[in-house]
Amino acid sequence: MNLFNLEHKVILVTGGCGILGGGIAKYLAENKATVILLHYKEEPLLAAVKELKTINEHAAGYVCNVVEEKSLQEVAKKIMDTYGKIDALINAAGGNKPGATVGPDQSVFDVDVEQFKQVIDLNLFGSIIPSLVFGKEMAKNKKGTIINVSSMAADRAITRVMGYSASKAAIDNFTKWMSVELAQKYGDGLRVNAIAPGFFIGNQNRALLTNEDGSYTDRGNTIIKNTPMNRFGDADELNGAIHYLASEASKFVTGIIIPIDGGFSAFSGV
Q1: Half-sphere exposure (CA, 13 Å, Cβ side) for 248?
Q2: pLDDT tens-digit series, residues 185-229
Q3: Residue 219 sits in the same domain as residue 94
Q4: 63-92 per-residue burial string, b: 16 or more CB within 10 A, e: under 16
Q5: DSSP structure string for 66-77
Q6: Which of 106, 165, 177, 234 is the most buried (most CB within 10 A)?
Q7: Catalytic option among 164, 186, 216, 244
Q8: Is 164 an annotated catalytic residue?
Q9: Which range of residues forms the domain containing residue 221?
Q10: Are 149 and 97 in contact (CB under 8 A)?
Q11: Start-to-end C-alpha separation, the chain
């Protein structure tokens, strides 16, 4: 038996048109999973699904909003009517807003509370609500796995990203809480885990970490100095942990958060 076999598994990916979600979706499609992208905008969703279909003809996508329960319930019904099951949900939707960060010349008292709430809504409830809606369908089948996306910002005070940090810290707690709840009430076929990426350069943080000439900013250099592997991560380095958590290889694993950080969380800075 191949514990890592993903063929015929129906795997939902929220934020499937982003760099992180899109990269994960592509990898899963390459490994013969039936990947279903969930995104709130139709045009980029159709483009992403079209690209995925060149890898795996079974790829599909649905327009929905991860913070709107009714929208997700409608999509859940369509998916269950079509596929009859949901093997895995990957909550990759998320983001940040300028007002929820503390700028170099600001203090915590300058944070925009409304934008802070929006960041919490997207990162926390954007994982909780899909987990409740799609997790309910998994519970009916007594089988399924939910994979959340945490962050290094959850475990320690990463300066500036106040709203993002708070939401990801809550993701850690929700992951553990939901894992216990589902296992105790619906059996050992239901699992909830998370990955905690370290520092990866993407469109959202590129200007924060690198200069126009490609050199690191002061913040970028600070991160590298505190990362024992002495580099930023590549997005495809998340795929191994995702594959493990989505497969039968981790069938006795629930309630954990896996750091993928080049040693950042292990290093004291000394």
Answers
A1: 9
A2: 999 999 999 999 999 887 777 877 888 888 898 889 999 999 999
A3: no
A4: bbbbbeeebbbebbeebbeebebbbbbbbb
A5: TT-HHHHHHHHH
A6: 165
A7: 164
A8: yes
A9: 204-232
A10: no
A11: 45
